[in-house]
């Protein structure tokens, strides 16, 4: 294939997590199970929040958005992988791959920004309780979510727009189970300096800065909790604080794990296995973390399920 060929006629090959034919049924069943748990768990969180007036607060408004993002993120990646395994056809068209690149960047950006907003919400609720309803008013909450989605749309659009100008003249096999941008850039025969520079810049702006904000918020919250004289107040503050901190740790921990895995190993298979953690496992575990560590969510889920069973 020549360097000047138009990219829209190209077709990529997704090698998947493993090329061992004997492992494909196990991988199919595992990913299908995790995908169903992810969708069901996050959907239950959304329904519980929407149906319970006690959860119509800024914190749970942001949590419902986070659950929606987790559903969409898994749906972007897992179904295509399952189809490829079932049909034994690893091909993905250029436009489908471009779409997957867009959304596989879009939803993690939303995750990062929503977690940052949720950290700020907890900071105001615990450290500035008297001003909470004034600061976290519905207008500000709606504006924050709108800005989050707008930044995600524009950033992902910028990355995919630059990718559309690349030419591909080498082996078009992607050693991954989805179209991951950095893996695709390795297949390009045209200059990818702008693409790489944008990745590093946006990683700093939308990755490091939000993490600094989250750590600052929770350092202030932890300091205040330690000073609380009432053990009941500490337990109530820590119930939501601990749940969100667990989700943040899981999200950033798996992301950093994938980064270091790709840096220290030259095995694409190990990088793919590490990527499973933040693309599939993290969205699946988030509902369990919030439901098991949060009494309000557990109560709302119990009332939702009891209403559903009573109608059967």
Automatic annotation (TrEMBL):
It is a multi-pass membrane protein. SUPFAM superfamilies: Family A G protein-coupled receptor-like. InterPro entries: GPCR_Rhodpsn, GPCR_Rhodpsn_7TM, Olfact_rcpt. Residues 41-290 form the G-protein coupled receptors family 1 profile domain. It is found in: Cell membrane; Membrane. CDD domains: 7tmA_OR7-like. This is Olfactory receptor.
